[in-house]
Amino acid sequence: MEKRICTITIIVMDREQAHNVNQLLSGFGDKIIGRLGIPYKERGISIISVVVESTTDDIGELTGKLGQMSGIKVKSLIV
Q: What residue ranges do the domains of the chain occupy?
């Protein structure tokens, strides 16, 4: 299957989920090209931007698992 480039934006609204998000991303670490995390203290959220190179199946698995977490919003763009 062909590998694609994808950007994933994750908004963590429930700080207690941060550990779970980091643990999940670590499991996909071999597919991650880069990652940027921005704590937005004034709003009480964190924004994580991740660039991934992988198959659409793997990208779907990652974003699907993130989307199932409470207090997490996720969007992706695949090219």
A: 4-78
pTM of the model: 0.94
Report pLDDT digits (tens) over 17-62.
999 999 999 999 999 999 999 999 999 999 999 999 999 999 999 9
The single residue listed with the structure tokens 């995390």 is: 37
The pair of three-digit structure tokens given for residue 24, joined into one six-digit string:
């999940």
Q: What's the CA gap between 45 and 64, in Å, rounded?
A: 20
Locate the DSSP E strands across 1-79: 4-12, 32-40, 45-54, 72-78
Joined tokens for residue 62: 């990652």
Class of domain 4-78: alpha beta
Are 24 and 62 within 8 A, CB to CB?
yes
